Input
Amino acid sequence: MNKVRLSVILPCLNCESVIATQLSALEQQRCDRPWEIIISDNGSTDKTLEIVQQYQSRLPHLRVIDSSARRGAGPARNLAVPFAQGDCIVFCDADDQVCPGWLQALANALDHHQLVAGALDLLALNQPWRIPDQHHFGTRESPHTEAFRYRHAPHLRHASASNLALHKDLHFRINGFDESIAFNQDMDDCLRLQKLGCQLTFVPEAVINYHLRHSMAGTYRQGYRWGKYSVLIYKKHLGDQDIVQQFRFVFGGWRHLPAMILKLRQRSDLFELAGWLGGRFGEINGCLTYLLAPKLKLGSQPLGNSG
Output
């Protein structure tokens, strides 16, 4: 094999029910640059690695590394990058499915841009009853069409690490994903890179079929985690704002609750409401944890002896 140009990094943890779908899709990828796949196993105890082993002969450029030393998707990605031989890193997830032409589209974009993100499509991997009419990852008819705007600073964009690629030196420049943030590390990554002057470029031809949560509890938990850690990212990038802005951040979203209830028409709308409620309660927890609690702790400190 010639020098590897692209390293596809796929973190996984107990993914025996889904990983074959992703590996089969990667097997069908055609790219005019040499590339490799790195499975970053975060401590699987099921048959995930047995299934991966079945693809070793079909994907000769596939390698597995043990990333169980630090749990979490961010650490799993970070631990894999030093093993990557490529100049560019491409992230995707074990429970999704890359579409034909995905890797070539990202490779072409990386020739001209340092940070790129592809589109997410909800149609292929989700039951019809789970797909809402409108979702931030797309609609019933098509994938989403642009990188997401950061709602607290709309001039900044972000994308999901399930379809994100960048030049490897940029990853090291910001020391990879911030492992102090348990969720939403991809949002934080994109914001940090843009603050360094690196533009996020959207590549609509690079499509991945995205797998939604199909349980109400799982959808709520995902929304809750996104909401909670979005506050930590907000504090990290925008600092401590005045009390009015903090209340607006935490409680402003609730004004949309009547509209969310009124638009309930089908089963998928209930899932969207569960995720939305999770996000709002997560924001309240995040505000108490990351904005209010540190100030109360600071305020409770005894004053220094002035004499």
About this structure: DSSP finds ten helices and twelve strands in the chain. The first strand starts at residue 6 and ends at 12. The mean pLDDT is 90.
